[in-house]
Amino acid sequence: MESVTRNFFLFLSKSSLLNHIARNWGSAVASKKIIGGKDFESAIPVIKRLNDQGMAVTVDHLGEFVTKAEIANERTTECIQTIQRIAEAGLNSHVSLKMTSLGLDIDDDLVYHNMKRILDTAEKHRIMVTIDMEDEQRCQKTLDIFKEMKSQYEYVSTVLQAYLYRTEKDLDDLNELQPFLRLVKGAYKESAEVAYPNKKDVDLNYQKLIEKQLLSGNYTAIATHDDQMIEFTKNIVKKHNIQTSQFEFQMLYGMRSETQQALVKEGYQMRVYTPYGREWYGYYMRRLAERPANIAFALKGMTRK
Ligand SMILES: Cc1cc2nc3c(=O)[nH]c(=O)nc-3n(C[C@H](O)[C@H](O)[C@H](O)COP(=O)(O)OP(=O)(O)OC[C@H]3O[C@@H](n4cnc5c(N)ncnc54)[C@H](O)[C@@H]3O)c2cc1C
């Protein structure tokens, strides 16, 4: 039953018609509980509040699978402005973005050019830009862009997904670049040809990757809401005497807020992924797919302003 629900929401997440309707429907329905604001300015108070609570942030301007160069260029400009605003306002925030929002599905030159424009600004302000990982079909291209950018810029990082069979090898290949990596389980619908179909195997691979990346000495972001993975990380860092400055936990805005604060109180670094913007639909559907309990949470959000 759980996998039927998951597949249903992942199927819905790709509907451009529903995305269009949702965009015009407004953010009241999208539940302010998991989106920072309709634009960056309206997300600033949320970021400040999280910063005041001892948490760092990474902001994500929602929007993906862009098919027009004009829109990809607009997204790039918006991202540059966001980096400038983070610096001006003295916010403790990174930026996360998706390659399909910068033109990955349109033209290679376009996406490389847009990414360089963003990283020129990020480098100037010393603000990290993390390339989110999208579906498996786009994984190789995304890693190629990351490698190319990492050879030229310092403030760039990316994400690896534990559900893909290929990921351990990707982690090994990236090691020589000494990358800042966010490790996640993976949020897209993938076939058993490329991804572990069973949750148990994903969890085991996730633990393997966390341990490997931490022991390599590279900076590691453990992005999960799963207590077992958090406990696993705590045990590994204790066992190997790894400093808290070498890793951070990451969670999504609006998810497990009490746990986020508890981790800060325990002395761990915590970063909250805070999306903003009107293109909330795909993000929202993936969250519903991950956890059926989020459905009840979402329905409550629809009836409350
Ligand atoms: C900061 C961040 C960035 C991400 N970036 C990407 C990315 O770039 N690409 C990508 O593919 N995926 C990304 N993801 C999503 C990720 O891949 C997973 O789909 C998502 O985090 C769900 O997996 P999980 O490890 O949190 O826990 P799951 O495996 O979904 O759940 C395990 C257990 O954790 C607990 N749990 C989970 N969620 C909650 C909750 N909301 N409230 C209470 N308990 C909960 C439950 O006990 C559950 O049984 C990101 C996730 C985070 C947190």
UniProtKB/TrEMBL annotation:
Which residues participate in substrate binding?
98, 286-287
Proline dehydrogenase domain residues: 46-296
Q: How is the cofactor bound?
A: Binds 1 FAD per subunit.
Reactions mediated catalytically: L-proline + a quinone = (S)-1-pyrroline-5-carboxylate + a quinol + H(+)
| Top-level EC class as recorded in UniProt | oxidoreductase
Q: Which cofactor does it need?
A: FAD
On the tree of life, the source organism's domain of life is Bacteria
Give GO MF terms, alphabetically: nucleotide binding; proline dehydrogenase activity
What EC number is given for this enzyme? 1.5.5.2
Q: What is this protein called?
A: proline dehydrogenase
Q: Tell me what gene encodes this.
A: putB
